[in-house]
Amino acid sequence: xxxxxxxxxxxxxxxxVRSIHELDxxxxxxxVFMPYALERKYPNAAFEWGWQWxxxxxxxxxxxxxxxxxxxxxxxxxxxxxxxxxxxxxxIAKRASCHTFRHHAELRIMPSRDTRSMxxxxxxxxxxx
Length: 129
Description:
Radius of gyration: 18 Å
Largest sheet: 2 strands, antiparallel
Number of strands: 2
Number of domains: 2
Helix content: 40-55%
Distance between the termini: 20 Å
Strand order of the largest sheet: 1-2
């Protein structure tokens, strides 16, 4: 579903994020926050690559109680600003945002569905687990 140019860029980004994660692990960190039930059920999951954020923060967080450090996800406003700037630089006159991509993806995934008749985001398959 991703264009080849985006796929290559994403794979490059993931390689870079993985190297940051491996460096964090080597320094004794490299964890993400896990909800309590998952942390009990899968005690090592917080360190595993599959649970790491695709867009992690640049700096690690530190839990004042335990002293543990890890990374949260990048703040959404950073991505929103980047999309806004990309739209501006591309010379697109219409407003576009991250939410625009959600609608575009939904139309591509469910092209035969009449999205005008949807009663809110709850009915969207993109948001249901």
